[in-house]
Each structure stands twice: as C-alpha cells, then as structure tokens.
From TrEMBL:
It holds the Pfam family SoxZ. Gene3D superfamilies: Immunoglobulins (2.60.40.10), SoxY domain (2.60.40.2470). This is Quinoprotein dehydrogenase-associated SoxYZ-like carrier. Residues 168-257 form the Sulphur oxidation protein SoxZ domain. Keywords: Plasmid, Signal. The keyword Coiled coil does not apply. It comes from Paracoccus albicereus. The keyword Cytoplasm does not apply. Residues 51-145 form the Ig-like SoxY domain. Residues 1-18 form the signal peptide.
Length: 261
C-alpha cells in the first residue's frame, strides 16, 4: 500500500504544469444559457484577465479521469478571496468552490479533475473587494466521470481517508502537496465485478490550516478526481498543518502534519 500511495503522490508532486496557450475557451451555450447566471449568479460575463488570474491545462487529456489544472496569479495581482472551478459539460458542472486565506496569495494551486466531454474548463476568481474575473481552457477529454475506479472495493475500504503531506521551500514561500486516499465515486461508475452502479460517494468538504490560520477550504462535487491531490504555494507561519475532510457518507478525517513535512 505504501508504494502505491507514494506513486500516486508523485503524480503531481513534480515540476509545476507548463502554461498552455493553445486551448483558449470556446463559445459555450451551456455556459451562456444554463450556468453563468442561473448557477453562478453572474449577471455579466467576468472579464478574462491573465494579469489577475490564469488557468493552465492540457489541450488533450492523457486520462480524462485525472486531468491536471493549475490556477495561478502573477506577483502583485490582487489577492483572491474565493475561486470556483466549473467544467461546462460535466453532469455536475461546479467542480469545486474554494475559500482562500491570505497566505495563499498570489494563488498557485494545482488540482486534478474529471472531464466527461470536450469542454470549457474555467475558474472564476473573486478578488478582495473587486469584481469577479475569469480564466479558462478548452480541454479535449471524454468519459472521465464514468471511468472505472482505479482499485477494487476492498482496497477502497482499507485505505480510505489515508493522507500524506509534503513540503518544499521555494523562495519565501512553501509548496505544500496534500494527498487524500478516497475513491470519490461519481455515481456514474460501475463495479467491475458486479457491474452494478456504484453510488456517489466523495469528499465534499476539505479544510487546510496552518495553526489557526486558514489556508483554504473546499466545497466539492463529483468532478474532483479519485485520490485527490492538492499542490499549492503558501506563505508559512511555522505552525503545523492540519487537515479536516468530510465525505458524503458522513465520514470525517482529521490529521496534523509537521510544518516541515
């Protein structure tokens, strides 16, 4: 189990994603008609402004169930209070809603998501006291929400809730990598033995703190990948890192890690 955990941990713990520039957002009726105002509550289209927020992602996903996204801000950009990740063509388009602490500014965060069909993937950021901005990419991927789980049900029960934490120093900031073992079943997958549909079961609440200071919280749906991994930059205060996670079955996990990882 330890070797498998380490291998999955290393999937995103390496060099940061290279910026992608060849896959800008495409026209999306789903966004214009169904999502922007009725789901996100945005009366006007948020401007795309890479001087405040950018999103990088592969043009074509190697694995539609494990698509890496990187949310970034350049130095000097206004701090974000919140960020919402939306995958237009997914069955549940709002992948995650993040609340961001001051130590996360400027934002540099990587996550992995499921993409169910060729789709715009976008992030709407809320700068402190300012109007929302948007960044996004068009990703060629399909079937990510119904892709078979990567492990059998016995392994799921044995490892669910296990966490690992790693810290690296980069200038005056730390790069933290958090991995949580969880199947994050989407409700669209089938058990490969019984062929019955597996009920939705995923982490829907995550809180990460250093001491009493919030780094970020996440409210998530079915689009966050199996065994979710979060890699993010933050300004350290020397306090231990504490993680609180809850899933849709009522399971709760808490773990504290040394600040040095």
């Amino acid at each position: 189990m330890r070797l498998a955990l380490t291998a999955a941990f290393l999937l995103i713990a390496g060099p940061a994603l290279a910026q992608e520039t060849g896959n800008p957002l495409q026209p999306s009726e789903t966004w214009d008609i169904d999502l922007r105002e009725s789901v996100l509550g945005l009366e006007a289209e948020p401007p795309i402004d890479p001087s405040i927020l950018d999103l990088s992602a592969p043009v074509r996903a190697d694995d539609a169930a494990l698509v890496p996204l990187r949310l970034t801000q350049p130095d000097g950009a206004p701090a974000l209070e919140a960020a919402t990740v939306v995958i237009d063509q997914n069955p549940a388009p709002v992948a995650a809603e993040f609340q961001l602490g001051k130590a996360m500014a400027p934002l540099d965060m990587e996550i992995r998501v499921r993409v169910d069909a060729y789709s715009d993937v976008r992030v709407i950021g809320n700068p402190d006291g300012d109007a929302p901005v948007m960044a996004g990419r068009f990703i060629k991927a399909s079937g990510g929400c119904s892709a078979p789980a990567g492990k059998d049900m016995a392994a799921v029960a044995e490892t669910m809730g296990d966490m690992r934490w790693k810290t690296a120093v980069e200038g005056d900031r730390n790069i933290g990598t958090l991995m949580i073992r969880h199947p994050n079943f989407s409700g669209l997958q089938r058990d490969q033995v019984t062929l019955l549909t597996i009920p939705a079961h995923f982490i829907d609440t995550l809180e990460v703190r250093q001491g009493d200071e919030m780094l970020f919280t996440m409210s998530a749906g079915i689009s966050i990948s199996e065994d979710p991994v979060f890699r993010f930059a933050y300004t350290p205060n020397g306090q231990p890192i504490s993680v609180h996670a809850e899933d849709t079955d009522g399971n709760v996990w808490d773990q504290t890690f040394d600040a040095a990882g």
